[in-house]
Amino acid sequence: MCKTTGPAVQRTGELTKRGWTAREIRSARTSGRIEQLRQGVYAVPGACRPLRTAARHGGSLACVSAARHLGIWVLEKPPAPHVWMRGHGHRRSCPPITGTDACGCVEHWDDGASPTDAFGLPPVPRILRQVLACRGVEEFFVAVESALRQRLLTRSGLAWLRANVNAEGRAALAIARSDADSGLESLVRWRLRHRGLRITTQPAITGAGRVDLLIGDRLLIEVDGVKNHASRKKRHKDLVRDAAAAAWGYVTLRFDYAQVVHDWPSVEAAILGQIDAGHHLR
Ligand SMILES: [Zn+2]
Ligand SMILES: [Zn+2]
Asked: Which ligand is nearest to the CA of 97?
Protein backbone atom coordinates (compact mmCIF):
# COMPACT_ATOMS: atom_id res chain seq x y z
CA MET A 1 0.00 0.00 0.00
CA CYS A 2 1.35 3.43 -0.92
CA LYS A 3 2.16 5.78 1.89
CA THR A 4 1.33 8.85 -0.11
CA THR A 5 -1.68 11.00 -0.74
CA GLY A 6 -2.27 11.87 -4.38
CA PRO A 7 -0.90 10.01 -7.37
CA ALA A 8 2.14 7.91 -6.48
CA VAL A 9 3.52 7.78 -10.01
CA GLN A 10 3.46 10.84 -12.21
CA ARG A 11 4.63 12.02 -15.60
CA THR A 12 6.69 15.17 -16.02
CA GLY A 13 3.60 16.93 -17.38
CA GLU A 14 1.57 16.05 -14.29
CA LEU A 15 4.32 17.31 -11.99
CA THR A 16 4.52 20.52 -14.02
CA LYS A 17 0.75 20.97 -13.75
CA ARG A 18 1.12 20.67 -10.00
CA GLY A 19 3.58 23.56 -10.04
CA TRP A 20 6.95 21.79 -10.25
CA THR A 21 9.55 23.56 -12.33
CA ALA A 22 12.05 21.63 -14.46
CA ARG A 23 14.78 22.67 -12.06
CA GLU A 24 12.82 21.36 -9.04
CA ILE A 25 12.24 18.03 -10.77
CA ARG A 26 15.96 17.75 -11.54
CA SER A 27 17.01 18.56 -8.02
CA ALA A 28 14.39 16.20 -6.51
CA ARG A 29 15.79 13.45 -8.75
CA THR A 30 19.34 14.16 -7.75
CA SER A 31 18.52 14.20 -4.06
CA GLY A 32 16.47 10.99 -4.39
CA ARG A 33 13.24 12.63 -3.31
CA ILE A 34 11.58 11.31 -6.46
CA GLU A 35 12.71 8.26 -8.43
CA GLN A 36 12.82 8.23 -12.20
CA LEU A 37 11.19 4.96 -13.20
CA ARG A 38 11.67 5.55 -16.90
CA GLN A 39 12.04 8.58 -19.15
CA GLY A 40 9.62 11.23 -17.92
CA VAL A 41 7.92 9.01 -15.30
CA TYR A 42 8.57 9.50 -11.60
CA ALA A 43 7.61 7.78 -8.35
CA VAL A 44 6.96 10.14 -5.48
CA PRO A 45 8.08 9.25 -1.92
CA GLY A 46 5.91 6.53 -0.40
CA ALA A 47 4.98 4.91 -3.73
CA CYS A 48 4.92 1.15 -3.10
CA ARG A 49 7.07 -1.31 -4.96
CA PRO A 50 4.31 -3.08 -7.01
CA LEU A 51 3.10 0.29 -8.28
CA ARG A 52 6.63 1.29 -9.27
CA THR A 53 7.12 -2.02 -11.09
CA ALA A 54 3.79 -1.67 -12.92
CA ALA A 55 4.78 1.82 -14.09
CA ARG A 56 8.18 0.55 -15.24
CA HIS A 57 6.39 -2.15 -17.19
CA GLY A 58 4.21 0.46 -18.88
CA GLY A 59 0.94 0.54 -16.97
CA SER A 60 -0.74 0.66 -13.60
CA LEU A 61 -1.71 -2.09 -11.18
CA ALA A 62 -4.50 -4.40 -12.30
CA CYS A 63 -6.48 -7.42 -11.19
CA VAL A 64 -5.28 -9.16 -8.00
CA SER A 65 -2.42 -6.68 -7.54
CA ALA A 66 -4.78 -3.69 -7.68
CA ALA A 67 -7.19 -5.54 -5.37
CA ARG A 68 -4.44 -6.19 -2.81
CA HIS A 69 -3.36 -2.59 -3.09
CA LEU A 70 -6.85 -1.48 -2.05
CA GLY A 71 -7.05 -4.01 0.78
CA ILE A 72 -9.40 -6.39 -1.06
CA TRP A 73 -8.72 -9.98 -0.08
CA VAL A 74 -7.07 -12.19 -2.68
CA LEU A 75 -5.84 -15.73 -2.21
CA GLU A 76 -2.13 -15.22 -2.60
CA LYS A 77 0.31 -12.44 -3.21
CA PRO A 78 1.29 -12.65 -6.89
CA PRO A 79 5.07 -13.01 -7.39
CA ALA A 80 5.04 -10.07 -9.84
CA PRO A 81 2.40 -7.41 -10.38
CA HIS A 82 -0.59 -7.77 -12.68
CA VAL A 83 -0.39 -4.68 -14.87
CA TRP A 84 -3.19 -2.78 -16.60
CA MET A 85 -1.89 -1.81 -20.05
CA ARG A 86 -5.28 -0.35 -21.03
CA GLY A 87 -6.22 -1.14 -24.61
CA HIS A 88 -3.27 0.54 -26.26
CA GLY A 89 -0.40 0.58 -23.79
CA HIS A 90 3.24 0.06 -24.66
CA ARG A 91 5.31 -2.56 -22.94
CA ARG A 92 8.50 -1.01 -21.59
CA SER A 93 11.67 -2.62 -20.46
CA CYS A 94 11.00 -3.91 -16.98
CA PRO A 95 13.82 -5.38 -14.86
CA PRO A 96 13.74 -9.21 -14.72
CA ILE A 97 13.11 -11.09 -11.48
CA THR A 98 16.43 -12.22 -9.98
CA GLY A 99 17.51 -15.52 -11.46
CA THR A 100 15.22 -15.26 -14.50
CA ASP A 101 15.22 -13.37 -17.76
CA ALA A 102 11.66 -12.06 -17.47
CA CYS A 103 9.99 -9.54 -15.19
CA GLY A 104 7.04 -11.87 -14.59
CA CYS A 105 4.43 -9.10 -14.81
CA VAL A 106 1.00 -10.33 -15.93
CA GLU A 107 -0.45 -7.97 -18.51
CA HIS A 108 -4.11 -7.01 -18.75
CA TRP A 109 -5.11 -5.40 -22.01
CA ASP A 110 -8.78 -4.62 -21.43
CA ASP A 111 -9.72 -1.17 -22.61
CA GLY A 112 -11.66 1.25 -20.49
CA ALA A 113 -12.01 4.85 -19.50
CA SER A 114 -8.76 5.76 -17.83
CA PRO A 115 -8.71 7.34 -14.41
CA THR A 116 -7.66 10.98 -14.48
CA ASP A 117 -4.03 10.23 -13.60
CA ALA A 118 -2.05 8.16 -16.09
CA PHE A 119 -0.91 5.55 -13.57
CA GLY A 120 -4.08 5.38 -11.52
CA LEU A 121 -5.69 2.06 -10.66
CA PRO A 122 -8.70 0.83 -12.64
CA PRO A 123 -12.06 1.42 -10.93
CA VAL A 124 -12.99 -1.35 -8.45
CA PRO A 125 -15.64 -3.00 -10.70
CA ARG A 126 -13.07 -3.28 -13.50
CA ILE A 127 -10.49 -4.70 -11.08
CA LEU A 128 -13.02 -7.35 -10.07
CA ARG A 129 -13.82 -8.20 -13.69
CA GLN A 130 -10.10 -8.59 -14.34
CA VAL A 131 -9.90 -11.00 -11.39
CA LEU A 132 -12.76 -13.05 -12.88
CA ALA A 133 -11.10 -13.29 -16.29
CA CYS A 134 -7.61 -13.94 -14.93
CA ARG A 135 -8.12 -16.03 -11.79
CA GLY A 136 -11.54 -17.58 -12.19
CA VAL A 137 -14.89 -17.33 -10.52
CA GLU A 138 -13.87 -18.57 -7.06
CA GLU A 139 -11.30 -15.87 -6.49
CA PHE A 140 -13.70 -13.36 -8.06
CA PHE A 141 -16.40 -14.29 -5.54
CA VAL A 142 -14.03 -13.90 -2.61
CA ALA A 143 -12.78 -10.52 -3.87
CA VAL A 144 -16.34 -9.30 -4.50
CA GLU A 145 -17.41 -10.18 -0.93
CA SER A 146 -14.32 -8.45 0.44
CA ALA A 147 -15.04 -5.32 -1.63
CA LEU A 148 -18.69 -5.35 -0.51
CA ARG A 149 -17.70 -5.75 3.11
CA GLN A 150 -15.39 -2.74 2.88
CA ARG A 151 -17.94 -0.70 0.94
CA LEU A 152 -15.57 -0.40 -2.00
CA LEU A 153 -18.22 -1.55 -4.43
CA THR A 154 -21.07 0.91 -4.90
CA ARG A 155 -24.56 0.07 -6.09
CA SER A 156 -23.78 1.45 -9.55
CA GLY A 157 -20.44 -0.40 -9.59
CA LEU A 158 -22.28 -3.61 -8.84
CA ALA A 159 -24.76 -2.89 -11.63
CA TRP A 160 -21.86 -2.29 -14.06
CA LEU A 161 -20.28 -5.54 -12.97
CA ARG A 162 -23.52 -7.49 -13.47
CA ALA A 163 -23.82 -6.08 -16.98
CA ASN A 164 -20.19 -6.75 -17.86
CA VAL A 165 -19.40 -10.26 -16.61
CA ASN A 166 -20.35 -13.67 -17.96
CA ALA A 167 -23.15 -15.91 -16.62
CA GLU A 168 -20.75 -17.58 -14.17
CA GLY A 169 -19.78 -14.18 -12.75
CA ARG A 170 -23.42 -13.11 -12.47
CA ALA A 171 -24.26 -16.33 -10.59
CA ALA A 172 -21.47 -15.54 -8.12
CA LEU A 173 -22.70 -11.94 -7.72
CA ALA A 174 -26.20 -13.24 -6.99
CA ILE A 175 -25.02 -15.04 -3.85
CA ALA A 176 -22.32 -12.57 -2.71
CA ARG A 177 -22.90 -11.01 0.71
CA SER A 178 -21.51 -7.95 2.39
CA ASP A 179 -21.05 -9.39 5.88
CA ALA A 180 -18.33 -12.02 5.36
CA ASP A 181 -15.61 -11.34 7.89
CA SER A 182 -12.69 -12.83 5.97
CA GLY A 183 -11.72 -14.16 2.58
CA LEU A 184 -11.33 -17.66 3.99
CA GLU A 185 -14.87 -17.55 5.27
CA SER A 186 -16.09 -16.51 1.80
CA LEU A 187 -14.05 -19.31 0.27
CA VAL A 188 -15.55 -21.95 2.57
CA ARG A 189 -19.10 -20.78 1.80
CA TRP A 190 -18.35 -20.72 -1.91
CA ARG A 191 -16.98 -24.25 -1.90
CA LEU A 192 -19.93 -25.59 0.05
CA ARG A 193 -22.53 -23.76 -2.05
CA HIS A 194 -23.86 -26.83 -3.88
CA ARG A 195 -24.31 -28.91 -0.72
CA GLY A 196 -27.72 -27.47 0.13
CA LEU A 197 -26.61 -26.46 3.64
CA ARG A 198 -28.07 -23.75 5.81
CA ILE A 199 -25.06 -21.54 6.57
CA THR A 200 -25.17 -18.49 8.83
CA THR A 201 -22.35 -15.94 8.67
CA GLN A 202 -20.91 -14.46 11.86
CA PRO A 203 -23.64 -15.67 14.24
CA ALA A 204 -23.44 -14.81 17.95
CA ILE A 205 -23.26 -18.12 19.83
CA THR A 206 -24.04 -18.47 23.53
CA GLY A 207 -20.80 -19.07 25.37
CA ALA A 208 -18.56 -18.56 22.34
CA GLY A 209 -19.48 -15.11 21.05
CA ARG A 210 -19.15 -14.40 17.32
CA VAL A 211 -18.02 -17.34 15.25
CA ASP A 212 -17.22 -17.42 11.55
CA LEU A 213 -19.87 -19.81 10.29
CA LEU A 214 -22.73 -21.86 11.67
CA ILE A 215 -23.93 -24.80 9.60
CA GLY A 216 -27.46 -25.92 10.42
CA ASP A 217 -28.13 -25.40 14.13
CA ARG A 218 -25.03 -26.83 15.77
CA LEU A 219 -21.93 -27.06 13.64
CA LEU A 220 -19.50 -24.17 14.08
CA ILE A 221 -16.72 -23.53 11.58
CA GLU A 222 -13.81 -21.29 12.51
CA VAL A 223 -11.18 -20.34 9.94
CA ASP A 224 -7.93 -18.69 10.97
CA GLY A 225 -6.33 -16.28 8.54
CA VAL A 226 -2.73 -16.48 7.50
CA LYS A 227 -1.77 -13.79 10.00
CA ASN A 228 -3.37 -15.51 13.00
CA HIS A 229 -0.39 -17.68 13.79
CA ALA A 230 -1.11 -19.95 16.69
CA SER A 231 0.35 -18.13 19.60
CA ARG A 232 -0.07 -19.97 22.89
CA LYS A 233 -2.44 -17.30 24.14
CA LYS A 234 -4.62 -17.53 21.03
CA ARG A 235 -4.63 -21.33 21.21
CA HIS A 236 -5.78 -21.16 24.82
CA LYS A 237 -8.51 -18.66 23.94
CA ASP A 238 -9.74 -20.93 21.14
CA LEU A 239 -9.86 -23.96 23.43
CA VAL A 240 -11.85 -21.99 26.02
CA ARG A 241 -14.32 -20.89 23.34
CA ASP A 242 -14.67 -24.42 21.94
CA ALA A 243 -15.32 -25.84 25.42
CA ALA A 244 -17.92 -23.16 26.13
CA ALA A 245 -19.65 -23.85 22.81
CA ALA A 246 -19.54 -27.60 23.44
CA ALA A 247 -21.25 -27.07 26.79
CA TRP A 248 -24.17 -25.57 24.85
CA GLY A 249 -24.27 -28.52 22.46
CA TYR A 250 -22.19 -27.13 19.60
CA VAL A 251 -19.50 -28.95 17.67
CA THR A 252 -16.59 -26.76 16.52
CA LEU A 253 -14.33 -27.46 13.56
CA ARG A 254 -11.29 -25.24 13.17
CA PHE A 255 -9.25 -24.84 10.00
CA ASP A 256 -6.31 -22.69 9.05
CA TYR A 257 -5.35 -20.94 5.83
CA ALA A 258 -3.20 -23.80 4.49
CA GLN A 259 -5.96 -26.36 5.00
CA VAL A 260 -8.71 -24.31 3.35
CA VAL A 261 -6.59 -23.11 0.44
CA HIS A 262 -4.31 -26.09 -0.19
CA ASP A 263 -6.12 -29.11 1.24
CA TRP A 264 -9.79 -28.47 0.69
CA PRO A 265 -10.71 -32.20 0.31
CA SER A 266 -9.75 -32.87 3.93
CA VAL A 267 -11.68 -29.80 5.14
CA GLU A 268 -14.75 -30.80 3.17
CA ALA A 269 -14.52 -34.40 4.39
CA ALA A 270 -14.38 -33.19 8.00
CA ILE A 271 -17.44 -30.95 7.54
CA LEU A 272 -19.46 -33.53 5.60
CA GLY A 273 -18.52 -36.22 8.15
CA GLN A 274 -20.16 -34.17 10.90
CA ILE A 275 -23.18 -33.49 8.72
CA ASP A 276 -23.59 -37.16 7.77
CA ALA A 277 -23.59 -37.97 11.49
CA GLY A 278 -26.31 -35.34 12.00
CA HIS A 279 -24.17 -33.26 14.35
CA HIS A 280 -25.24 -30.03 12.70
CA LEU A 281 -28.88 -30.43 13.74
CA ARG A 282 -30.54 -29.90 17.04
ZN1 LIG B 1 -4.60 -10.82 -13.47
ZN1 LIG C 1 7.27 -6.12 -15.79
From this structure: 2
